[in-house]
Amino acid sequence: MDREERIQDAERSRERQRQASRAQRDAESSLGHEDVALGVTDSNNVSSEENLRKRKRHVAIDDSDDSDDVEEIEFELSQEVPPLEPAPRHIYGGKTRAASTTTTELVLPCDPSPFTEASLGPLYNQIHALDPDELVFKKNFKSVQLLVTELGPYAADMIWQRYAGAQEARRNGLVKEKRVPASFSEVEEMRSKLVDMVRAHKFPSIVLDPQSTDCNASPRLLTLLQVLKQMMAKEKDRFRGIIFVYRRTTAKALADLLNRNAQVLPNVRARPLIGSSAVLMDPNADHLTKTQATTQFRDGTINLLVTTGIGVDLSVERCSIVIVFDSFSAHAAGQLRQSHLLKITSIFLILIEKGKQKDIQALSAFLPRRSKEKSEEESTPPAAEHPRSTGIDSEDEDQASILVPETGARVSALDALQVLTRYVSIKEKSAVSLNVDYHVMGENNRIFRCTIRFPPSAELEDVTSESCPSKAAARRQAAYMACEELNARGLLGALVAQAGKKLKTITKVTPPSVFDNEVGVDVERKLSKGRSRKDRSSKLYPRKKPDVWNTCLLVHNDVLFPFIIHLDARDAKLPGVYRTMCLLTRIRLPDLAPFELYFPELKKSEDQATPPTVTARFLRSEPLHLEPEQLIAVHRYTIRVVRSVTSRQYICQRDKMVYYLLPLKLGWSPRTRPTNSPSVYAIEDEIDWADVEAGAGQLPYLPLDMEKLEEEVKDAVLQDRQMEFTRKYEPVRVRHDLTPLSKPKDSEREQQYASILEFCRANIRNFKGIEDESQPLIEVGKMAPPLSRLSPLCHSAPSSRNPPAKYLMPELCVKYCLSLSSYRTSMILPSVMARVEEMLLVQECNSVVFHDRLDEVFLLPALTSPSAGAGYDYQRLELLGDSFLKYISSIFLFVTCPQDGEGSLHIHRQRIISNSALQFHSDRVGQLPQYIQSRQHSPRQWCPPNFLLYHPCMASALDTSEKFIQGMEERIEASNDGPTAGGSPPESGVTKALESHQANAETSPDNSTVSRSPMPYSARERALMREEQHQELGDKSVADVAEAVLGAAWLTGQREMALYVCHILGLPMTRMGSWDFLRDHAHIFFHEELDIGPLSQPKVEAVEAILGHKFKNPFLAATALTHSSMSSTDFPCYERLEFIGDAILDFVTVRLLYMRWGELHEGWLTMLKGAIVSNAALAAFCVDLGLHHYIIHDSPHLVETVSSYAKEITKAKEEDLAAAAAEDRAPGEYWVTLEPPKVLSDIVEALLGAIYVSDSFDPSGYENVFDRLFKPFFMKRVSLNTLSQHPTSLLFALLQQRGCHRFELTKTRAETDLLTEVQCDFVLHGKVLATSIHSSSAGASRRASAMALELIQTQPELLDKLCSCTKIRNESEAQQPPSDPIPVEEEEEDLLAKEDLSGS
Length: 1400
Hints:
Elements: H1 3-30, H2 48-51, E1 55-62, E2 70-77, E3 89-92, E4 95-98, E5 104-110, H3 122-130, H4 138-150, H5 153-176, H6 186-200, H7 219-235, E6 241-244, H8 248-260, E7 270-273, H9 278-281, H10 290-299, E8 304-307, E9 319-324, H11 330-337, H12 341-344, E10 345-353, H13 357-366, H14 372-379, E11 401-403, E12 410-412, H15 413-428, E13 435-441, E14 447-453, E15 463-464, H16 471-488, H17 492-497, H18 503-506, H19 521-530, H20 533-537, E16 539-542, H21 547-553, E17 559-568, E18 581-585, E19 595-598, E20 613-621, E21 624-625, H22 628-646, E22 650-651, E23 659-663, E24 680-681, H23 689-695, E25 701-703, H24 709-712, E26 718-719, E27 728-735, H25 756-763, E28 777-782, E29 807-808, E30 814-816, H26 820-848, H27 856-862, H28 875-896, H29 902-913, H30 915-926, E31 948-949, H31 968-974, H32 989-1003, H33 1019-1029, E32 1030-1033, H34 1035-1064, H35 1076-1080, H36 1093-1107, H37 1114-1121, H38 1135-1156, H39 1162-1173, H40 1175-1185, H41 1196-1223, H42 1238-1254, H43 1260-1277, H44 1280-1283, H45 1287-1298, E33 1303-1309, E34 1318-1324, E35 1327-1334, ...
Parallel strand pairs: 5-10, 6-8, 6-9, 7-8, 9-10, 20-24
Antiparallel strand pairs: 1-2, 3-4, 11-12, 13-14, 14-15, 16-32, 17-18, 17-20, 17-21, 18-23, 19-20, 22-31, 25-30, 26-27, 26-30, 27-28, 28-29, 33-34, 34-35
């Protein structure tokens, strides 16, 4: 069929359509417009009278409030609605009920609404005068304009009442929480005025008389009220109704209005159901969920539900009436038609407005369609191969539709445009718009034709519509004609089938990315999306031990390599005598750097913040050959030392012990005879074997020789009971002037008793007395527990609550197997060995991951988390590494993405520097997380490698030399699996014995006659073992360590080493193999063929004179000065240069601060950096140099803004200089109180970027400019002294000095209509003390800090009420129990005191 035939066919179809429409209108006129008639167009030109099959339905409506007369409203449907099939049986609450089988379907016409925008009322006009541009209350204005037509002026006024109430509630909540801003913004003032207007307005009552001129309810609402009144009077308490509306606003307003009019509907309980997404729009409202609505509807809490299309699938048992109140979408109508609601309701009522085409179309969606076969038979012309009813008038265009044979769906003229757009977009492989041309005709230019032009890929000829009264109608008709052609070709079915898919999903074409060839980037992106927030926050990693310990187990010889642990107190005197110890290993350990141990005992005063330090040095010694008997003694001695420190029954097999501990003679020093090598010492003759034999003995204690008491207590540790794990005392002197019958006045413990002997009789169970009542007493002091001496927060052990023992009777005492000097040294060994393992891990990480390229002095803190409490951590290095990573990633993306804008560059950069990306690549490539030190050192939890807590099941794995622990021999003899004396341990070993015992304990059946063995360890002990093997690290911790390693790399070898570490960490920048990569690509940014023109050339030359730097490429300088208002294709604006300039300025600033104040806390360095690179500081610097005069722009507003700011900042500078001279101080940050135009800071950063690119990415150019201009300006005005005047720093310093740590500044988007405003809250112990709203983050935080500082200074008692950090810390120190409970042997319970365990 050629084009002319198609046009003739279309003309015939349009003529038949017009005839059917005229017949329909004649039928409606004959009914006096009381009925609604829907015509069904017949393709065979059959008369409309024959096609109209009318069906009468009735509904009883109460037409008055005070009469029971019933007016019958008769209406007719033009199409027969077949009766519904019997509903299936449904199950509710476990019982089977038959669903209702009869549903009366009604269509009720209403008069058109007489209300227009002229009926909005005086309140609307007052509020509109307050906001004439509709910037603040735009949504409210639209809601009022909608409701005044649908419900009437009364419901429209309710919008303002509801909004004013919400604002008052919000303001009251802010006042209650003390979050009221210091000064309201313009939006807040407008809201306050609106509330006052609503309060002052006198709202009229609702008038429901349609004959009255004061009637303020729409005819549709009046009809609804009449229906509901009649139904509720009939159903009474059994009434349940559901009203469907199109908009959420209508649902909320209608439910509120029905509840307010108790005189009309006295028992109504209405609630709106508008979907869960409404919570995002109005989070303070009381929204119903579907579950809540269903439950409350069933039990009668709600008897009338006003819902949008979200409620079509409600599962309710019974419903009196379902009402469609206004125009409904075709999709929702279809769902409602097939829903369960229409099968259980008694009446289904549709309200339509007379003469409203939208309601007519909505009604047609509810009517059942005839079968596809019958429709095709009636609608297909005999002579036509395909149906083509393209004639669409303005009145009936919404009713025409195309039947899609493949799916049975219909495409109307309203849908045609969207379907056609989807077809063209799929062909073009990108989301496109239709190419549409309009032709205006007629005398008054009121007739339009539309031509849709298709691209070649669409394979469609251009389509032109017929003459239509509007552009929209012409466009729809042309799209409809094109869709008919697609249907004729069989292409429309696939488009309809894909209607549920998003267009961007169908046409999505993945553009090439800078990360296409980077390993792991796509995997990291998928993993980050798939992991939940909790999963992203932390991950379990193995807690690595140095590989050198495993290597030691592979060496089997009698030669050991000593490492002397020497304590160098320098000019200070150690608190007591410490014996020098040796660390013996089977292989030679690498050199270890000396480190500091903190000794709070050396404090000269309690006010001294940091404890004095003692340096631990490692001195090498000649290899040592030990005899087998000596090696056994050293092995047992090492176990004894570990048990002494931890108070735990640790054991370790000799072939599993990775290092041994060996004491030297008392008084040994490095001045002892050295060997030929000045750095190697000979210790073979300096070993104190007597101390070794005593510690390796079977018993952990020895009796005191009463005859040589003075000699016995020298260098001895005393106990007041015969057991291994008990309190130990340091002897001070023997008191011959005191006896057990004495009552020492300086011993608080015995003050309530006549003598020390009486105290023992009263407190020691089964006390048998003493033989010698005249024996002297020993004055003692309590031995201090092991302290964490690696942290500057180390403090002396708190005093116990019970008075300690000061005097002991020698007859009741024993001497511990370790000497006092050895015992003192053993108490610091956990700290020493913890630091040794840290340094060994750092050396291993440097070797395995970084190939020995990094300086371990910097790598050690880079791998240490602040939670480790080691006195150093990665925070300062992380600040340096973060700025370098931002710097290098920005430059890399600038070069590799030359066409991307600033926004795209920001997105790409996040894929390199985000926490998840750094964590993923660090874990994937370098296995860096396992080397991170995050656990705080606890001496009581010291557990050398391969040490295990003893359990009787281990007896079979121990040889004779290892059976020295008190009480173990009896346990071993009781075990029938033990080896004979001198036998070798079984092949399985201790670990195998534990596993066998565990399996036996878990697999024994409960009904077995053999009793199950107890678990080897308690839950707490097993938790400690797991903690030794694993550590939990968050993504941010791993990312911070990666950035700190970059900082360490830069300190080691500047930017070359830092780039090398970027590749080691697997960051997706492999294309940048060296810094020459940037120089090789610099030429693509020069654009030497472009002339910057006479306008830009003088400005560039003036800027060069100011900066003292000659741009090698003037085009880049001009670009750096060009504002977005002046940008073009040839001359872009400064945004890309500002992107890299910002990163450059960040890096050079942090580098300067690190070199100058490297020992400061990371928080102070961050504040100093923020004070320099903030927009306010850079804007002041820009004006100070005069760069603001040379901005290339085309914005009059910009001229006014910059000029005004330049005057204000110049005045502020002069005032600050005068005040500094008068107060004899350095100039300060005079710019902090002013809000600058962002263009000024952007220009400064863009110029730095332009210098770098113009110099072919040679950093010397911008470094020279920074040192000459930036550094003097900021170092003169920004320092610790000027920073201390910042309210935030003052506030933080005040709280930190008090010892408070639970405070923060939180920043969120302000709850205002201006999206740029920031709200900052200062929170102290969960309470908001101050809130500020400002246009910038810095301004908001500064104002909130100032408000909180003023509040604390005027009400100092507020801190005592809210902050309890100091009190809690003091109480915990005073009441802190020992780190681990002291186990007590059962056979020695008779020696325990009744109340005080330290009884003498």
